[in-house]
Amino acid sequence: MCDQSCIEFANKILKSEDVRGKSVIEVGAYDINGSLRSMVEALEPLSYKGVDIAMGPGVDEVSNAEDLVKHYGAEQFDLLICTEVVEHVQDWRTVISNLKNVLKPHGILLLTTRSKGFPYHSAPADYWRYQISDMEIIFSDFSIEVLEKDPDQPGVFIKARKPENFQEKDLTDHLLYSIVKHKKLITINDEEVNQIDRYWNEIELAVRRKLSILLPESTKRFVKKKILRIL
């Protein structure tokens, strides 16, 4: 997933020498509303592997972000792209750790995600919001080359490089803003996740019931096909 501002950021900060002849992995590669793949492949990487939790457009292999090192091994890739993913993972620390450790020394991480103020969007779930200050702490064990806000909507973009003598930062006590609980938390438990899922299911059901009363049949079919399927 990658919208226009994400594409423009990557086009601005990715240099030819970052990509040409390098091994690239894209984590969260399922192309729903845009992708960096064609732009990156035009810079002639040695290889490009798109991974996600399900097969689909842009996906070469299925792998959970929590299992990247287990799946591929440590220090395997020169460039890691991860756009609009880490807000959707419940265990963000494990995912971030895998993103860091699957990269080779001097490898580059390009990551985009959402910040506080961006609405809840389940795809398939939504948990966290990251600020500039969070990224400064989370990637303090990397060399941050570019860190900026999304110019169009609440979000943050980062390009960071893994050092030769990488020592991973302990993020156990770092508080992150939860879109589920609307406050900073260490973690979110399964019951809290289930509560928010039930909440949104109830909203969708209420909308369906109201529309079934108010709308003519032709409009109902359009709404069901074009609108309710994305809620």
TrEMBL record:
PROSITE patterns found in the cross-reference section: IMPORTIN_B_NT
Superkingdom to which the source organism belongs: Bacteria
Span of the signal peptide: none
Domain Importin N-terminal, residue spans: 194-231
Protein name: Importin N-terminal domain-containing protein
InterPro entries: Importin-beta_N (IPR001494), SAM-dependent_MTases_sf (IPR029063)
GO molecular function (one): small GTPase binding
SUPFAM superfamilies: S-adenosyl-L-methionine-dependent methyltransferases (SSF53335)
